[in-house]
C-alpha cells in the first residue's frame, strides 16, 4: 500500500502546473459566478430601450408586451427593462436616501470611444450628463456618468488596463 501511495503522490507531482492550477481554481471558485442579467424599472420604456439600441448599439432581445418589458443585449450583458405601472407617480431614485441601484457601470473599449459617446450624449435631449469624462481618482481609469431617458444613472468607464499610455 505504501508503494501505491508513493506512486500516486509522485504522479500528482508530475502533473502539469496548469492542471493543478485548474483544480485549485475550481476548489476556490465562488458558488455564484457572473451577473446573468439586470432588471431595471423605468418610466419611459421605449425611450430607454431605444437609448440602449440606438445610442449604445445594443440589440433588441425580446420582451413581454403584457408586462410591459423590453430586453436588450450587447452580446455580453443582458438588461431587462420593466415599465413602472404609473410613470407620472413613480418616485425617482435618490442615491443618498434610497436603497437600490446606485448606478450601472459599463466598460468602454477605449478613451476615443468614451469621448465619442460623450459627444453623442450631449446631442440627445433626453439624456442628462452628470459629469463628462474625467479621471476616476488619480487616473488613468477614466469615466463619466449620465442619466438615460428614464433617469437611471449609467457610468461609462475605461479601466486603466485599456488605456494606451503615449
Supply the number of helical segments: 4
CATH architecture of the largest domain, by name, is: Roll
CA radius of gyration: 23 Å
Strand order of the largest sheet: 1-4-3-2
- The tally of beta strands, per DSSP, is 8
Distance between the amino and carboxyl termini: 63 Å
CATH third-level topology of the largest domain:
2,3-Dihydroxybiphenyl 1,2-Dioxygenase, domain 1
CATH 4th-level superfamily of the largest domain: 2,3-Dihydroxybiphenyl 1,2-Dioxygenase, domain 1
Can you characterise this structure?
16% of the residues are buried. The protein has four helices and eight strands, in the order H-H-E-H-E-E-E-E-H-E-E-E. It has helices spanning 2-13, 17-28, 45-55, 111-122; strands at 38-42, 59-64, 69-73, 78-83, 104-107, 128-135, 142-147, 153-158. It has two domains: 34-85, Roll (2,3-Dihydroxybiphenyl 1,2-Dioxygenase, domain 1), CATH 3.10.180; 101-166, Roll (2,3-Dihydroxybiphenyl 1,2-Dioxygenase, domain 1). The termini are far apart. The strands form two sheets. The chain has a four-stranded mixed beta sheet, with helices on one face.
Can you give me a brief rundown of this structure?
The protein is of the alpha/beta class. The protein is 28% helix and 28% strand.
Features:
single chain; 2,3-Dihydroxybiphenyl 1,2-Dioxygenase, domain 1; four-stranded mixed beta sheet; disordered N terminus
Sequence-ordered SSE layout with sheet pairings:
Blueprint: H1 2-13, H2 17-28, E1 38-42, H3 45-55, E2 59-64, E3 69-73, E4 78-83, E5 104-107, H4 111-122, E6 128-135, E7 142-147, E8 153-158
Parallel strand pairs: 1-4, 5-8
Antiparallel strand pairs: 2-3, 3-4, 6-7, 7-8
